[in-house]
Design brief:
By secondary structure, this protein is an alpha/beta fold. It has helices at 32-56, 73-79, 108-111, 133-136, 148-152, 155-167, 195-214, 228-240, 250-254, 259-273, 288-305, 315-330, and strands spanning 60-67, 89-93, 120-124, 217-225, 280-284. The protein has one domain (5-168, 192-330): P-loop containing nucleotide triphosphate hydrolases (Rossmann fold), CATH 3.40.50. The protein has a five-stranded parallel β-sheet with strand order 2-3-1-4-5, sandwiched between helices. 29% of the residues are buried.
Length: 332
């Protein structure tokens, strides 16, 4: 069966999307040599689609890359996104929020980096970090100085409930209290701040991406799915190669102790934020050549869906073009 990007998509609400995707899958893309040749052949096609997108100046494309450390996000940028016109393709890498970023909402710093019409913007990590890292390390929330009421619950839900209660007619009698719902996770660390707080951030992300799509920014989200065994191998390569030492931090190895917590946080994030207008795609990342070719083919599919075309000239513009041609041809 030939590869199609739809087989990588996460169904909205799937409680365990990572369970359905192997990290070492090859997706029928062939061996390494075959895949590399296919990618080389694909890059000029991506460039042409981008040229059409840029010339048309209607849609923009936002590509979001998320993954555990060493999964290959930088490789996607270097070997796949390099096929685009670099004059109108901008990569933004988001580290931990700092300075003024801590005094604004978690989406604020990303807004200024959104691509203009006709352009491609790449977020190498993104606002999704704020529903992942602080869930595993709740102490990261403190510097954001959020009001306690926002950490404990969703103030908008409380306000809405109060409004509905005030507008509701008097009932015949008291209704029995509903049983407390069971928490979706037994991990207390992932439940602080409250589950309502995290659900609120999921809701904000979905609403934000819906706003983007409604206003002409097509959102493509790629999650590189790496196994802990392969991550260990790549970490050791970075440690043993002096030219790659700079890519490794001791914190990377220490954070492997939180692998299961991150796995659960990613499962919930993918489930809650894969929407019909901005679905997640899970790319197997144990084989770099598979992840890169799958990313390229997915971007090709998504760009083709926008039907970008070079603008057609109206009769007046064509007349001006003919006059300019005649002037040029008369030059000696």
């Amino acid at each position: 069966m030939p590869f199609h990007p739809s087989q990588l998509r996460v169904n909205p609400g799937d409680p365990e999307p990572l369970r359905h995707h192997r990290t070492d899958a090859t997706l029928g893309l062939g061996d390494r040599a075959t895949a590399l040749q296919k990618l080389a052949d694909l890059l000029p096609q991506l460039r042409e689609l981008h040229d059409r997108l840029y010339a048309q100046r209607t849609w923009s494309l936002l590509v979001i890359l998320q993954a555990m450390d060493a999964a290959g996000k930088d490789g996607i940028v270097k070997h796949v996104l390099a096929g685009f016109n670099q004059q109108s393709c901008h990569v933004s890498a988001f580290g931990p929020p700092a300075g003024a970023e801590l005094s604004h909402t978690f989406l604020w710093r990303c807004v200024a980096q959104l691509p203009a019409r006709g352009q491609i913007g790449v977020f190498n990590r993104s606002y999704y970090e704020e529903v992942l890292v602080p869930r595993v390390h709740p102490d990261y929330i403190g510097p954001q100085r959020l009001p306690g009421a926002c950490l404990a619950a969703d103030p908008t839900r409380a306000a809405n409930a109060k409004h509905l209660a005030a507008a509701k007619p008097i009932a015949d009698g008291p209704k029995p209290a509903a049983p407390n719902p069971k928490p979706k996770t037994r991990n207390a660390k992932l439940d602080f701040p409250s589950r309502e707080f995290w659900q609120g951030r999921f809701d904000d992300i979905n609403a934000f991406e819906r706003h983007l799509v409604r206003n002409g920014t097509h959102v493509v989200k790629l999650f590189l799915n790496l196994s802990p065994e392969e991550q260990k191998k790549r970490f050791l390569v970075r440690i043993n190669d002096p030219a790659r030492n700079w890519k490794f931090s001791p914190n990377d190895a220490r954070d492997r102790r939180n692998w299961q917590d991150y796995h659960q946080a990613y499962n919930e994030m993918l489930s809650a934020t894969s929407t019909p207008w901005a679905p997640w795609h899970i790319l197997p990342a144990d084989h770099k050549y598979v992840a890169r070719l799958a990313a390229g083919l997915t971007l090709q599919h998504e760009l083709r869906a926008l039907h970008p075309q070079f603008p057609r000239l109206d009769p007046a513009a064509k007349h001006d073009l003919s006059r300019a041609k005649a002037l040029l041809e008369r030059e000696k």
